[in-house]
Amino acid sequence: MNPYGFVRLSGGGPVREAVRFHDRFEGVSGRISCKLTTRTALFVPKYREGSADRARMHETLEMCRDHTGRPMVPGTSLKGAIRAVVEAASNSCFTLPNRLAYERQTVSYGLPREFQSCEDVGALCAACRLFGMLNRGKVFSGNVSVQDAVAQSGYQTRQFTLAVLSTPKPRHRYFYSTKPEDPIPQIRGRKFYYHRPQGPRMRAQKDGQNKTVEAVLPGAFFTFEVEYNNLAEAGLSLLLFGLVLWDDTCHKVGMGKPIGMGSAKIEVTALTALDRQLRYRQWGGGWREPLTDKALTDFLSARVDGYRNGMTDNLQDLHRILRWDENAPDVINYPDQQWFKSNPKTPLEGAQPDPRVRCRDGGLYERPIPAFG
Ligand SMILES: [Zn+2]
């Protein structure tokens, strides 16, 4: 099975609104405390200058760490992962270009006009209202800030010599579009990678085609905070859903998503609301008692259940692709060159294994292999 699927674009495009409230105290503000638990090896490279030039030799990359030496996932990286699911869940605009580069060429896919990137700060889709937008010099910095996630004690790291991270092949129109013969075929939707509970695909040989990385092992946990400022209630609900998703799904964070890395579960452990009117009167004041345990569960459920139970194409696709199943068989891999040669026009749905595939424990995989959307 191909390592990715597409979340369909649903309906007639995002509802766009201005972000500002008439009254500065109208929106909700506060802080969400989160815990991220690694389910497969997770790796974010330490920042190095000029790394692009060294691609020809085998590289050994270190994990990103904070000033005390603990593994860290930068807030920007987390924000990207959260924004991607928020965009898909809310049918927001498409922030990625629809002209895709590969191997020094580009290929264009059509995007319905309504889904093109927001251009006007006075009319933003739900994701841009939360996380901001940048389009041809117009900037809105967003009302949500995601802090760095730092590993808590008990984590372990290990070196993995990874499988070759093959570059995506967006020229394979039969995967990326349902109308591949059109002059500018329409994109199928938003691309997300399936989880691979078996963890990273590896390769014994070390050369310029692959890398060795120091990754954080499954079972480690990180903590981080998300601050939100002056959101509409609906914006807070969407943000919370972007963090917790469904009970049986995980996010993908960091490098190596196509080869099984970066699966992580995010949970909200506390939510502290900020009363802006109180804060205005008393500097440093205004923080309410944090919500935890049952009060937190109730608060979350009132806000995210609408998404969790949603029947729209986009929510169904997202749930299917991001589902984490510890016992899922090892069927995630790119078809090889030979397959592409023999099946030049097979759509994405055709690149599936025998449905009677075996589990690791030898039994047959009972749940049907989910169909592609
Ligand atoms: Zn937008």
Automatic annotation (TrEMBL):
Keywords, in A-Z order: Antiviral defense
Key word Ligase present: no
Domain CRISPR type III-associated protein: start-end pairs: 36-264
Signal peptide location: none
GO biological process: one example: defense response to virus
Coiled coil: none
InterPro entries found in the cross-reference section: CRISPR_Csm3_endoribonuclease (IPR052216), RAMP_III_fam (IPR005537)
Protein's name in the database: CRISPR type III-associated protein domain-containing protein
Species of the source: Tectimicrobiota bacterium
